[in-house]
Amino acid sequence: MRVGILIVPVGVLVMMFGIIFYLQGNSIVGPTSSFMYSNPKWIVNGQWIAVSGALILAAGLGISLRLPRS
Question: What is the pLDDT of residues 9-23, one digit of tens each?
């Protein structure tokens, strides 16, 4: 089983959650009753989560392109 192919969707999912958290912190999306809504802490958290997702995505793509196909 190809490990890189499994890591890529995880990276995309983590990055999407980070973007959603960032937007909720900026009061752009989400219900106003959410604890993340208009919370500056979640702006920073969302940025770091999105960056982490991008790094996971890059690692998955790097692994899948580097390993020879069987």
Answer: 999 999 999 999 999
Q: For the residues of the chain, what is the DSSP string, one character each? A: --HHHHHHHHHHHHHHHHHHHHHHHTTSSS-TTSTTTT-HHHHHHHHHHHHHHHHHHHHHHHHHHHSPP-
Length of the chain: 70
- How many domains, in total, are found in the chain? 1
Range of the domain at 21: 3-66
pTM of the predicted structure, to 2 decimals:
0.88
CA-to-CA distance for 9 and 50, rounded, in angstroms? 14
Collapsed DSSP state (helix, strand, coil) of residue 3: helix
List of residues 6+ apart from 66 with CB closer than 8 A: 4
